[in-house]
Design goal:
The structure holds two protein chains of two kinds.
Chain A: H1 2-75, E1 80-85, E2 91-93, E3 104-111, E4 117-126, E5 132-138, H2 140-190, H3 206-256, H4 262-292, E6 300-303, H5 304-321, E7 325-330, E8 335-338, H6 340-356, E9 363-370, E10 374-381, H7 388-395, H8 412-422, E11 426-431, E12 436-443
Parallel strand pairs in A: 7-9
Antiparallel strand pairs in A: 1-2, 1-5, 3-4, 4-5, 6-8, 9-10, 10-12, 11-12
Chain B: E1 2-4, H1 8-20, E2 26-28, H2 31-40, E3 46-49, H3 57-66, E4 73-77, H4 82-90, E5 95-98, H5 103-116, E6 123-126, E7 129-132, E8 137-140, E9 143-145, H6 149-160, E10 166-167, H7 168-176, H8 186-199, E11 207-210, E12 214-217
Helix pairs in contact in B: 1-5, 2-3, 6-8
Classes of the chains: A alpha+beta, B alpha/beta.
């Protein structure tokens, strides 16, 4: 869920980022072009005015020019300001309050009657008698237009950004909602609720197609698991019932047999063999049951410290009796969501392995440590250990490595691995230098 | 005692063993017959097979409980899965035994179930052994015996059974809460220590080993 939210947010932010950059580039481009067009237009108007005044001066000389300037300034019919300066630098006409600029085009400052400074665009031309005519027009209206355009553009951009963000959030929420139902269903199925399915809407969009595909996969999985359960229970019934009869008959025969006779010993051995077959069978079924995930439904908070301590106390004596020693370091208050008995089985199997595969006089260490993120169970011995290339094989079913006398059925470590995985943990076989260390790590504070 | 079991051979063996122990057993071969028999004559105890031809043993247990039967129920099953045990106990069974089992194991469990209802005295004794459950103190005749917690629990189980056999698997379940066979010497180790402590200074072994099944206290010990 968190991952989905992150992905949706990243996609949204990425698109908004691209969109913003593109819009800014567009805006800056439009502003530059707009500014140039406006200036060009102003320049054209100024040039036309200069040309018309030069024509007046050509016909009537300086007096006609002065008269024309006065008339224009008085009537205020246009946006132009004028300045006519004689070759000696004296002002001959026009009311534009500025320093006379050089010939040609210039951006100038002038003062209005109220004394305020304004920016203006000006062209200065030289008359035949050496006087200089400057025609200027204020830039402010053009700037105003540019500012208005800029404001409009910014407002539009903000609106689009808001729509983009809202759309992104909606997009994220939709994805989250749709994928959320997939995640929830998948999680429930993993936890053993095989009937859980993903909701499919009428829209028949990509999500619905995905949901339909996943649902049919889940259907098939459920059918297979159900089939497996049936087979297991059929085998259980069809195999155990005759074995039950067999065992009962042996028991009756044993009751009739003379005590300590060869016959009694044979029957006794046969019963032991039957029990060995059943114990193997039980272990296989148990591994299958644990791996199916069906037991998650019965998981609860387990006081792991108490469970491990009880077994450790008891096994200290078992180890002593077998000529080995067991030392324990167990952190208190370690809890885990799981099954008490399965967790106990991990400890029992590993301790039994350690006792079985080490010579007399060996030291076995049992540790239960709690860190912030993990609960770590270690069982280490100083016996012969397992060679590195054999460690992977040791975890597989029916693996019997040449490690001392082995009276087990070769499923012990496989069962431990299955239980560990069912609790969301990991198991590692390490070199204890010398000996074997089995290290099991469970994540803290989360449901497996 | 009512036995609901469809396998005739198994039913016969169970009946014979229980009758030999002085119990009165009436066998039924189907769930329906069993329920009818249950309603006709309220038994002291029910033994129900999980896989019956006409109905699930769980349903029989639920029917028995909902019709007001409060006696002990022992479920027999060929399944042996953890889920199976949990559902069985949740449905109202008191104990659970996976097929195939030693008949002696079944007898020991039935004895324990029948004793379940009797009130536990603070001080109990059997043979020469006396225990104080509250103070967790033990005497053999007049001699105080100091035991470790696990040893006391083992002895307490034996005393509660009044000389009847307590199976090794029952001890694993009650003392160590292990419902699987760990193929371990854990029971033997503790039992041998308990023996040493109880027998120090006495000629007779207070505990009898019942071969292949478990242990009991000697009445003459």
């Amino acid at each position: 869920m968190v991952e989905t939210a992150r992905t949706a947010r990243q996609i949204t932010l990425f698109f908004i980022g691209c969109f913003t950059l593109a819009t800014l580039a567009l805006g800056i481009g439009a502003d530059l072009i707009g500014k140039r067009i406006v200036i060009e237009q102003l320049d054209e108007e100024i040039a036309a005015e200069v040309q018309s005044l030069l024509t007046v001066a050509g016909k009537g000389g300086a007096p006609a020019m002065k008269w024309a300037l006065r008339r224009r300034d008085d009537r205020g019919v246009n946006n132009f300001g004028y300045l006519l300066v004689g070759s000696d630098g004296r002002r001959l006409g026009g009311e534009l309050a500025t320093m006379p600029p050089g010939l040609g085009w210039a951006n100038i400052q002038f003062r209005d009657p109220d004394g305020e400074q304004h920016a203006a665009r000006a062209q200065t031309a030289m008359l035949r008698d050496g006087a200089r005519l400057t025609v200027a027009t204020e830039l402010a209206p053009a700037e105003e237009m540019r500012n208005t355009l800029l404001s409009l553009f910014l407002a539009g951009f903000c609106i689009m950004l808001a729509i983009g963000l809202a759309g992104g959030a909606l997009f994220g929420r939709t994805i989250r909602a749709r994928l959320g139902s997939v995640t929830r269903a998948a999680r429930s199925v993993t936890e053993g609720d095989l009937d859980q399915r993903i909701a499919v809407s009428d829209r028949q969009d990509e999500f619905d197609q995905l949901a339909t595909t996943l649902n049919s996969m889940l259907d098939r999985n459920a059918a297979l698991i159900e089939n497996l359960r049936h087979v297991s229970s059929d085998i259980a019934h069809d195999l155990r019932t005759p074995i039950m009869r067999l065992r009962l008959r042996f028991e009756q025969a044993l009751a009739k047999a003379e005590e300590d006779s060869e016959e009694a010993r044979q029957i006794d051995r046969s019963i032991a063999d039957i029990d060995a077959i059943l114990s193997l069978f039980a272990a296989l079924l148990r591994i299958a049951e644990i791996e199916s995930g069906a037991l998650h439904a019965y998981f609860h908070r387990v006081d792991l410290s108490a469970t491990v301590s009880l077994l450790a106390d008891s096994y200290i004596l078992v180890a002593q009796d077998s000529g080995r020693s067991l030392s324990c370091q167990i952190d208190g208050d370690t809890t885990l969501i799981g099954d008490t008995e399965l967790l106990a089985q991990i400890v029992v199997n590993l301790l039994e392995n350690a006792l079985r595969h080490t010579p007399e006089g060996s030291v076995i260490n049992l540790g239960l440590t709690r860190t912030e993120a993990q609960t770590i169970l270690t069982i280490a011995d100083d016996g012969p250990g397992i060679a590195e290339y054999d460690r992977e094989r040791a975890v597989q079913r029916f693996s019997k490595l040449a490690r001392g006398t082995d009276k087990g059925h070769g499923l012990g470590l496989n069962l431990v691995a299955a239980i560990t995985a069912a609790h969301g943990g990991t198991m590692e076989l390490l070199d204890n230098r010398p000996g074997l260390m089995v290290m099991i790590k469970f994540p803290v504070g989360q449901k497996p | 005692m009512l036995l609901i079991e469809d396998d005739a051979d198994a039913a016969e063996s169970i009946c014979r063993a229980l009758t030999a122990e002085g119990h009165d057993v009436s066998p039924e071969g189907s769930g329906q017959g069993g329920v009818a028999s249950l309603l006709r004559a309220a038994p002291d105890l029910m033994i129900v097979d999980r896989m019956l031809p006409d109905m699930d043993g769980i349903a029989v247990v639920q029917t028995a409980r909902s019709s007001g039967y409060i006696g002990p129920v022992l479920l027999l099953t060929a399944l042996g899965s953890i889920e199976d045990r949990v559902t069985g106990l949740r449905a109202g069974a008191d104990d659970y035994l996976v097929k195939p089992f030693a008949v002696a194991e079944l007898v020991a469990r039935i004895e324990a179930l029948l004793r379940r209802g009797t009130k536990q005295q603070e001080v109990a004794s059997f043979g020469s052994i006396r225990i104080d459950r509250l103070r967790r103190e033990v005497w053999r005749e007049d001699r105080r015996v100091v035991l470790q917690p696990r040893e006391f629990e083992l002895l307490e189980r034996l005393v509660s059974q009044n000389g009847k056999t307590v199976s090794r698997t029952m001890l694993l379940e009650k003392v160590w809460h292990l419902h699987f066979d760990p193929q371990t010497n854990i029971v033997e180790t503790h039992m041998s220590r308990l023996r040493q402590k109880l027998n120090a200074g006495f000629d007779i072994d207070a505990i009898r080993t019942v071969r292949g099944i478990g242990y009991s206290l000697r009445a003459d010990g």
